Amino acid sequence: MAGESFGPELFGRERVEPVPGAVLLPDWLTPAEQRELVVACREWARPPAGLRTVRLPGGAEMSVRQLCLGWHWGAVARCPNCGVARKEAAGCAQHWFPYAYTRHVHDGDGAPVKPFPDLLGSLARRALAAAYGGEDGEEGEAGEAGGGREHDIAGVEHDEHYAPDVALVNHYDDAARMGLHQDREERVAAPVVSLSLGDSCVFRFGNTETRTRPWTDLELRSGDLFVFGGPARYAYHGVLRTLPGSADPELRLGEPGPPLRGRLNITVRQTGLGGADPRVSVARTGLRSGPGNSLAVGDLPGRQQR
Hints:
The chain is mainly beta. It has helices at residues 31-44, 118-132; strands at residues 22-25, 52-55, 61-69, 72-75, 99-102, 152-153, 156-157, 166-172, 178-181, 192-198, 200-205, 216-220, 225-228, 237-243, 263-269.
């Protein structure tokens, strides 16, 4: 029809690189993969070491709820290795403060963290191949992204020894958000892989120096993949708001259980810790543990808790 214009989605949403090293691949997960991940998240959310309310170092609570796989990430009142409550401590080979990776839910029920699933490791390696591994985006026969080839795409050199070992799963209800922050607790600078499920959100991706401009605001929808590494690895980023009810009902997220409400984000990282520090005690973190900080799997569909 004369004068009628069509939005770009008539031809599908396109790959976006907001800054060198950061890549958004829309609709990367198939509907079947999204349903599989929602079912898996509900299982992972069951106690012990299940979905919990996250407390910040100052005592405030985050509006998102979280569970961890492989390693547990959370605030500590003092370093669990040396007992020092400051960001630097001479002589401490593995210093953590004010956040730490441990093998137990030190800020929750104290249970051992659930293992890192092969499902997420495979998806993360595929994700790096799709983002940085060239046009084919396929894994090689030996499992390395891009068939073991090394690429320098958008300033990121692909590492064939990439070995993700931790995942943080965040559940956002309609009012939840995430302030601008950096992911700095890892001991290696491997790229971060982020998968979105359920409702869309407005995601802000900034610079590596400050929480102020320049930044880029992106809409992340269910099935989208966002990867950042190389010069963008330590960029500030956060979620300004979710878009309640925006998930496509035809995705049937949550089947065979109740429909998913809200947004799920799965962030996969490589800690660089290997098998180190397997049994740091909850007592040495300076925090109290208890069952009151673990939320039941029934809350995952999105019932608000305040």
